């Protein structure tokens, strides 16, 4: 049974990957947007407030963390389009594991996210960013980024199933922006108003960005959240998955009722 589920999931993954060939602009946008963000904040915004030392070294982990939060719109839109066109209903009528539809979509999204992170890291290296934490720490940081992406993905899937229509997805995607910018991605909490500087380090994206900075050899200590960033970078995604994964699966199963 596990073999059949794996085969069904891989079939759905290949279906999602085939979209890349039919709509390469979606992949291109997913790759270019984070790079544009990096260039804009590194060279046009005049450096980050409260950041000492090389700003690019501080900025890169923040942009990497933001990358795993942004870009869910394509996945959410494709899912709602399949719902409205009856594609998912047809899949559910076939002799296949119904959950393979969501698993296949999530695997394709994770693959695209990994490519996007690697491209962004390559551009950062070309601009002068250097990783000082060693190979093992780099893999650990990359894993934390993908873990957060996986959690964000299932939030997106659940919200897409709730929205039900592609035109509502944009409104949902807009909600990601406040979460992304109210983080330590671009500026140190020490430069923020007292109450905001106390709250921002607890943002899940702040935890991931700070953990990647710590693993890369950049000391960003100051407060419990910053000192235990790796713990929070693991705990936040697991908590989000514990909430939204069953919600998404339950919502998906309820579609046929």
UniProtKB/TrEMBL annotation:
<keyword id="KW-0813">Transport</keyword>
<dbReference type="InterPro" id="IPR051784">
    <property type="entry name" value="Nod_factor_ABC_transporter"/>
</dbReference>
<keyword id="KW-1003">Cell membrane</keyword>
<feature type="transmembrane region" description="Helical">
    <location>
        <begin position="229"/>
        <end position="249"/>
    </location>
</feature>
<feature type="transmembrane region" description="Helical">
    <location>
        <begin position="174"/>
        <end position="196"/>
    </location>
</feature>
<dbReference type="Pfam" id="PF01061">
    <property type="entry name" value="ABC2_membrane"/>
</dbReference>
<keyword id="KW-0046">Antibiotic resistance</keyword>
<feature type="transmembrane region" description="Helical">
    <location>
        <begin position="100"/>
        <end position="129"/>
    </location>
</feature>
<feature type="transmembrane region" description="Helical">
    <location>
        <begin position="25"/>
        <end position="46"/>
    </location>
</feature>
<comment type="similarity">
    <text>Belongs to the ABC-2 integral membrane protein family.</text>
</comment>
<feature type="transmembrane region" description="Helical">
    <location>
        <begin position="58"/>
        <end position="79"/>
    </location>
</feature>
<keyword id="KW-0472">Membrane</keyword>
<feature type="domain" description="ABC transmembrane type-2">
    <location>
        <begin position="25"/>
        <end position="255"/>
    </location>
</feature>
<protein>
    <recommendedName>
        <fullName>Transport permease protein</fullName>
    </recommendedName>
</protein>
<dbReference type="InterPro" id="IPR000412">
    <property type="entry name" value="ABC_2_transport"/>
</dbReference>
<keyword id="KW-1133">Transmembrane helix</keyword>
<dbReference type="InterPro" id="IPR047817">
    <property type="entry name" value="ABC2_TM_bact-type"/>
</dbReference>
<feature type="transmembrane region" description="Helical">
    <location>
        <begin position="135"/>
        <end position="162"/>
    </location>
</feature>
<dbReference type="InterPro" id="IPR013525">
    <property type="entry name" value="ABC2_TM"/>
</dbReference>
<keyword id="KW-0812">Transmembrane</keyword>
């Amino acid at each position: 049974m596990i073999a059949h589920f794996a085969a069904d999931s891989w079939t759905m993954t290949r279906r999602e990957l085939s979209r890349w060939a039919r709509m390469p602009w979606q992949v291109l946008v997913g790759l270019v947007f984070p790079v544009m963000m990096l260039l804009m904040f590194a060279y046009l915004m005049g450096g980050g407030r409260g950041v000492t030392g090389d700003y690019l070294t501080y900025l890169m982990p923040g942009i990497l963390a933001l990358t795993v939060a942004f870009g869910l719109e394509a996945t959410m839109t494709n899912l709602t389009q399949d719902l409205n066109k009856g594609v998912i209903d047809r899949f559910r009528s076939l002799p296949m594991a119904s959950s393979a539809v969501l698993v296949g979509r999530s695997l394709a999204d994770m693959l695209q996210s990994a490519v996007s992170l690697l491209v962004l890291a390559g551009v950062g290296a070309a601009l002068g960013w250097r990783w000082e934490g060693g190979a093992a720490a780099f893999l650990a940081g990359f894993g934390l980024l993908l873990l957060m992406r996986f959690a964000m993905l299932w939030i997106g899937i659940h919200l897409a199933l709730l929205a039900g229509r592609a035109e509502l997805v944009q409104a949902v995607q807009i909600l990601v922006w406040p979460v992304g910018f109210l983080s330590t991605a671009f500026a140190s909490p020490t430069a923020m108003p007292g109450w905001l500087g106390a709250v921002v380090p607890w943002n899940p994206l702040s935890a991931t960005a700070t953990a990647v900075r710590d693993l890369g050899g950049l000391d960003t200590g100051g407060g419990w959240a910053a000192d235990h960033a790796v713990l929070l970078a693991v705990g936040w995604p697991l908590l989000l998955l514990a909430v939204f994964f069953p919600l998404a699966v339950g919502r998906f199963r309820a579609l046929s009722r």
